Amino acid sequence: MSGLFNPTVAWITFRATMGRRRAFLFLIPAVILIVLTVALKISRPPARPWPSHVLGTFGFSVLLPLTALIIGSSVLGAEIDDGSIIHLLATPVRRSSVIITKFIVATALTIAFAAVPELIAALISGGGYTEPTASSVVGGPGTVTSGTPISNSGFAIGLFVGAVVGAVIYNAIFVMVSAATTRAIAVGLLYVLIWETLLSNFVSGARLLSVSHYSLGIANAIAHDSSLMAGLNPATAIIMGSIVTVGALALAINLLSGFTLKGEPA
Fold first, then answer.
1. Residue 200 and residue 210: Cα distance in Å, rounded?
2. Continuous H helices in 137-190
3. Maximum average pLDDT range among 109-123, 145-159, 200-214
4. pTM
5. What is the pLDDT of residues 202-249, one digit of tens each?
6. Phi, psi of 134 (to 5 degrees)
7. Taking Cα atoms as reference points, which of 231, 230, 229 lies closest to residue 206?
8. CA torsion angle 116 118 121 125 (round to 10)
9. Helix axes 64-82, 27-43, angle to 10 degrees
10. What is the spatial distance between Cα 107 and Cα 114, in angstroms, rounded to a whole number?
11. pLDDT band, very low/low/confident/very high, at 45 (cuts 50, 70, 90)
């Protein structure tokens, strides 16, 4: 890893990413998530599965990927846009080192701005609940019983670990998209809204290629919350997530190498 991680590139990337006005956008999804959690905690009755739906389905398929998109497209895309990537690639730094270093920085920032807020929001919510069920024994036919509470610590840790996994995979994809096109934000936004938000939640077959369901599958393995609606089991989530991450990074390295050849003067 020491040969793939370049501290100088990491510091330059971190300073450039956090120094732009775009850095203020990183906080918006986190603030929305925490404010929404507090509002629901105050207004909703206990023993309802809203934490699982809000922090799981909505958090993993909308807020987490949007944060990763903003950050992941910034660490490489901005340098490609303004042409400064040519100066970086002119230095004796391996292309694989550039991609891996920027990927690590983007992942660390996404964990700070998305996974940590997920943990905080989960702790605020008080834990998850299994889905309420109809009972013909308690209260008569058709009576809806309260959901069974799930350990608050287990629920929070599960969501945090799932969000960390999602940060890793999403950033591998968005760094690759940044290397492939100068319209990384637009392409990434279409991917998040159409694939992760719509298709993966309504078409069962699409879940095999859904990062949000990789994250939910791993989160559910720890939280054991049926309301998380994880579409994949943990083993499938780990295998597919690993394949997507490695494949996206390998493609990003290849694309950046091709960019170098086209960008250097003859």
1. 6
2. 152-180, 184-190
3. 109-123
4. 0.84
5. 887 888 899 999 999 999 999 888 778 787 899 999 999 999 999 999
6. -75, 140
7. 231
8. -140
9. 170
10. 10
11. low
